[in-house]
Specification:
This protein is α+β, with helices and mostly antiparallel strands and 90 residues long. Helices cover 23% and strands 41% of the residues.
Length: 90
């Protein structure tokens, strides 16, 4: 299962300690990353780690139900297909 992680309202020192690779943002959110999980238990464990590290609920983990990228051969085009997003688990 894929999910999008958004983090806001934390210091740079905390962002450096996040257990995922992603992108720093400058605006409403401070950080965004795509994360993958095999089970719901992995998601719950990841959330507990984030709550301990961030010391609050200034993050949103939004699982993506289905996503795909279709590349047209020879044309170099990419198409992102997003079927739906589950309710946030945080």
């Amino acid at each position: 299962m894929e999910a999008i992680l958004l983090v806001w309202g934390v210091r740079d020192e905390v962002l450096r300690k996040l257990p995922v690779e992603g992108y720093w943002l400058y605006g409403e959110y401070d950080f965004i990353a795509k994360v993958e999980f095999s089970t719901d238990e992995e998601i719950e464990e990841f959330e507990r780690k984030l709550q301990h590290l961030i010391k609050g609920n200034t993050f949103k983990l939004t699982p993506v139900r289905l996503s795909a990228v279709k590349k047209e051969s020879g044309k170099g085009e990419s198409i992102l297909i997003l079927e739906g997003i589950k309710a946030s688990v945080s």
